[in-house]
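Pasting as-is:
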Amino acid sequence: MAITAYENLQIVRGTVAADGTRTAGYGFKVTKLSTGKYTLTFNNDFAEKPSVVATLDGEAWSLLDNTHVSDATTERVTVITGNSAGDVADRPFHFIAMG
């Protein structure tokens, strides 16, 4: 079954390990900036700012552990992950960017 959209969409998806290693997906580079802070740079710029969703990977985490999307542009996005105490912490995550 094909997906029908009202616009011509670019989609980039991937999985990133806690140490900042790309473990799945293509079309992006990942840079670990500091503890729990990662920048995803897209190989091809989006036509406009994409919608980006990220979620933690794995079952080892509390439901209070978290991930946030920040500073999305047509070229890159920052993902910040944290622990159940609300502190920034390294966590593996999945993401999808579409626009």
